[in-house]
Design a protein that fits this description.
single chain; 4-stranded mixed β-sheet; 2 helices; alpha/beta; 154 residues
Length: 154
């Protein structure tokens, strides 16, 4: 039995990634992935990208924070060593949604750039993901739903 809490999250508001190489990360998310930069640049300590219009007027964003920056000391991690990324990180991956019809364009774009990627299907939920890695080794998935992919397979 589920207790009524009086609230239910409706959407993802923000993904924030601590980065060592801001220039490479800003370039990747703007040029390779195609997110619109809202604030900051490759020299900024914090850069924000629009993912999509979110829920209730809150724009869904990806935020890149240089690892030495703490917006609120004691509340946000900061450090003198670059963050652990890739397989040793607690971040498994981020997934950004797009229409199924655009996934072939993603594959062509990655091929054009020479950006390594792999494709996986998740029949149990009707998703196909095109995966790649950002310059710091974080896995980024561009995922789409297609009802024809639904199956009983995991």
């Amino acid at each position: 039995m589920t207790q009524d809490r009086g609230f239910r999250p409706r959407a993802l508001g923000e993904i924030a990634i601590r980065c060592a190489d801001m220039a490479a990360m800003v370039e990747f998310y703007e040029t390779v992935i195609g997110l619109e930069r809202l604030r900051g640049d490759h020299k900024s300590a914090i850069t924000f990208f629009r993912i999509a219009e979110g829920f209730g007027g809150h724009t869904a964003v990806l935020a890149l924070f240089h690892y030495e920056v703490s917006v609120k000391p004691g509340q946000h991690p900061t450090g003198f060593a670059p963050p652990v990324t890739g397989a040793a990180s607690s971040l498994h991956h981020i997934a950004l949604s797009l229409p199924f019809e655009e996934q072939e364009a993603v594959i062509r774009w990655y091929d054009h750039l020479g950006q390594p990627y792999w494709v996986e299907q998740f029949g149990w939920i009707g998703w196909r993901g095109v995966f790649t890695q950002d310059p710091e080794g974080n896995t980024v998935e561009l995922v789409a739903y297609d009802a024809s992919m639904l199956s009983d397979q995991a």
